[in-house]
Design goal:
207 residues; alpha/beta; single chain; binds thymidine-5'-phosphate; 5-stranded parallel sheet
């Protein structure tokens, strides 16, 4: 049996990522050969780590702790869910993955791309996405469309400067990995963006 394809969806807060993932879920509803996941999370252990990372009461968390927690949640998800699914021929579509760590912790937190890439390759045991859809919209536009930041999410509460650095990080990642990362402009209406995402999946032979 051929291995399943691994797709990741990336973007800054408020770009409409959740909406686009929901549309994909509807599109693939009833198909046992497509699995949707979100990061951090996707296993009982990873969901508990998610709770710790995003808890607004954990404001004192240092950047190194944060990146290691994301990596720990990912290691469990890759080992317990993603690799076995791909081996069964299942297509895995993951809402955020290693590029989030690179953009948020590597670039925006300033931990460095090399450090984060090393951690990610350990956490994923070498697994990389076949294709990454980057929903491209700058954070100022994204937040004004969304109507402000989510107060219950520690990362989302960061200031606009942080989110601008996340966006610049994503742009650098797209430049560095042009074969894997496809930029989809996310300033159109929901249906237009969905069509562009579907076009990418079709072109890459995911559907
Ligand atoms: P979400 O809002 O898409 O559910 O993502 C949760 C938050 O975690 C979001 O603010 C982005 C952030 N994040 C990182 O900072 N690094 C990571 O590696 C991942 C997966 C998410």
């Amino acid at each position: 049996m051929s291995k399943g394809k691994f797709v990741t969806i990336e973007g800054c807060e408020g770009v409409g990522k959740t909406t686009q993932v929901e549309l994909l879920k509807k599109r693939f509803a009833g198909r046992g050969d497509v699995l949707f996941l979100r990061e951090p999370g996707g296993t009982p252990i990873s969901e508990r780590i998610r709770g710790v990372i995003l808890d607004v009461n954990n404001g004192e968390m240092c950047g190194t702790c944060e990146v290691l927690l994301y990596s720990a949640a990912r290691a469990q998800l890759v080992e317990q869910v993603i690799k076995p699914a791909l081996d069964r021929g299942v297509t895995v579509i993951c809402d955020r993955f290693t590029d989030s760590t690179l953009a948020y912790q590597g670039y925006a937190r300033g931990l460095g791309a090399d450090t984060v890439e090393t951690l990610s390759s350990i956490a994923c045991a070498g697994l990389t996405p076949d294709v990454t859809v980057f929903l491209d919209l700058d954070p100022a536009a994204a937040f004004s469309r969304k109507g402000g930041a989510d107060k219950s999410d520690r990362l989302e509460q960061e200031g606009m400067e942080f989110h601008s650095r996340v966006y610049e990080g994503y742009k650098l990642i797209a430049k560095k990995y042009p074969e894997r990362v496809v930029c989809v402009p996310a300033d159109g209406n929901v249906e237009q963006v969905h069509k562009s995402v579907m076009d990418v999946l079709e072109e890459r032979g995911i559907l």
